[in-house]
Amino acid sequence: MSSESFENLSYEDRTFLPSQTFIDNANAKSDIYKEADTDRLAFWEKQANRLHWNQKWNQVVDWQLPFAKWFIGGKLNASYNCLDRHVIEGRGDRVAFYFEGEPGDTQTITYADLLSKVCKAANALKELGIKQGDRVAIYMPMIPEAAIAMLACARLGAMHSVVFGGFSADSLLSRIQDADASLVITADGGFRKGAPFALKPAVDEALKGETNVKNVLVVKRTGQETKFDTSKDIWWHELVDKQSGKHECEFFDSENGLFILYTSGTTAKPKGVYHTTGGYLTQAAFTHHAVFDLKTEKDIYWCTADIGWITGHSYVVYGPLINGATQLIYEGTPDTPSKGRLFELIEKYKVSILYTAPTLIRTWMKWGDEYPNKSNLSSLRLLGSVGEPINPEAWMWYREVIGKNNCPIVDTWWQTETGAIMISPLPGVTATKPGSAMKALPGISAEVVDDEGKAVGNGRGGYLVLTKPWPSMMRGVWNEPIRYKETYWSRFEGVYFAGDGAKLDKDGAIWLLGRVDDVMNVSGHRISTTEVESALVSHDVIAEAAVVGAKDEMTGQGIVAFVILRGGIESATGDALVKELRDHVAKQIGPIAKPRQIMVVAELPKTRSGKIMRRLLRDVAENRVVGDSTTLADPNVMKLISEGLKTGKSED
Ligand code: WT7
């Protein structure tokens, strides 16, 4: 029996220093860690001064475990910080958003335009009776009005609850009910995979349930035939366009609610993660400045996340707009009309900072290098990753094929609950290692602990915890204070447990190992899914892998792997390939991690935000009926996998 909370199996000795020019020009320099360590609260106060406060705070933090308040007594307006300020200070002509619709339609929106649009929307919302503290559900495609709607709510001190446009009527209804929203903002539909899809019918369906929704404000995006109930439905262009483009905003308390965002729990009832204003904006703005090294005059910044996720909140709307960024937003999917679409957009807009997810990077690897190689990607100078552990091989591919060995990579670890980036390299400081998120940001305290909550020390694996309150931390689970305590603050005394496994390598760099619920127990060794998956992806023929622990009479659990081959590789390489892969894993990280079974599949089951749903694969591996798969991006995937297995068992 091993006594480790998590085995530390993989080893990595490649490191990459930023170039001297990057180091010299970086927004964050190496002394920033010391500055934050010396006086953490003074450090966060300094960051809070990035914002415009109508009234300064009189207390930095009030910490009554597990409830925090930041910048108490301060007053500010989120929308003013994103917009008015830039216009007042002479930056009104700067482009805020280049929008590219999937069909190829475009819009260029300056800060002055955006301010006027947000003011109109805020005036319209006010006319509909929306006021401070109200909740507004936003169910939209990735179009500028989605950001405008969020900012209009914030301007009035109302809270938005953005529900990702890919969610069903049922999910929308439960979120509307839980937050008790009184208004829904939506669109007739949007464009995806070359065709219009409808959104409004899902809202109609949801509102058959019991809610307090009084109006539905509908943006006309596709022009498709849309049922309208004139007793509550209102076209955005009819109500918003006629409003005044001026709106004098009020300044709200630092702890005024800014938004609720539901985590797409795969089984349990979704949690309404609740965020407030001053602390959240402080950390969003600081991290966006320091981690993405934004040079406002020069950079074209592109975060590919949908506005329905926290990444879209913090790194499309609030962080970048506060910092005066010029960004690209794109409505559609990466393979429409071709698998080179995103690369063509990078070339067209001269994108210099790209922030995306490992799922997309691995999909690009699977499609093959010919697509990125067709476009000129030389404008890129910094690459970011978020959402899942990035396998070292995918990291290297990102660096070489997309970044042309010329861009630092920031692998950023954080959560809906943390509100902003917590663990990440600083691009002009850190010598990065492929696959590691490296180190807690200045002002953040993270530790890796064992089952008893004791720090594990270098070279060991365990549980990732956050030991001190941070400005953008969630303030609670909406309406469920007990659930908040139990979920995040009960596993280890006095600290926040993130639910992730992690290890510290011999130099103390942090490696995320995946969710602890997914950890496999093989003959008493607790093995992370991430390390075995990364070992598989390090083989030339593999683009993507998902592993699960399946019941095993001999070893407790056996490792079962599902793999996707890289573009151009014949899939029917059969038993020889399976043997080679098993040996490869044994060689990379040790015989204990050798998969019992390896299956070549065409797709993996993923959530709409791109996370692999290992729970469903466990059902397949244990020959059970596959459980609830309603949150899958593509519901057919599980059928294909199960059918494929019946014909091609590859156990040896
Ligand atoms: C979970 C949070 C934060 C925005 C997107 C996801 C995983 C996130 C990383 C990373 C390894 C990561 C964790 C975390 N995760 N970033 N860089 N390396 N794992 O937000 O949906 O709230 O998910 O995503 O497991 O707990 P989310």
Automatic annotation (TrEMBL):
Keywords: Acetylation, ATP-binding, Ligase, Magnesium, Metal-binding, Nucleotide-binding. The keyword Lipoprotein does not apply. One of its GO terms (biological process) is acetyl-CoA biosynthetic process from acetate. Acetylated. Deacetylation by the SIR2-homolog deacetylase activates the enzyme. It comes from the Bacteria. Residues 88-478 form the AMP-dependent synthetase/ligase domain. ATP binds at G387, E388, P389, D411, T412, W413, W414, Q415, T416, D500, R515, R526. Its cofactor is Mg(2+). The keyword Oxidoreductase does not apply. It catalyses: acetate + ATP + CoA = acetyl-CoA + AMP + diphosphate. Residues 31-82 form the Acetyl-coenzyme A synthetase N-terminal domain. Signal peptide: none annotated. Its EC number is 6.2.1.1. Pfam families: ACAS_N (PF16177), AMP-binding (PF00501), AMP-binding_C (PF13193). CoA binds at R192, K193, G194, A195, T311, S523. The modification N6-acetyllysine is found at K611. Mg(2+) binds at V537, H539, I542. Residues 531-611 form the AMP-binding enzyme C-terminal domain. Belongs to the ATP-dependent AMP-binding enzyme family. Catalyzes the conversion of acetate into acetyl-CoA (AcCoA), an essential intermediate at the junction of anabolic and catabolic pathways. AcsA undergoes a two-step reaction. In the first half reaction, AcsA combines acetate with ATP to form acetyl-adenylate (AcAMP) intermediate. In the second half reaction, it can then transfer the acetyl group from AcAMP to the sulfhydryl group of CoA, forming the product AcCoA. This is Acetyl-coenzyme A synthetase. It comes from Candidatus Nanopelagicus limnae.
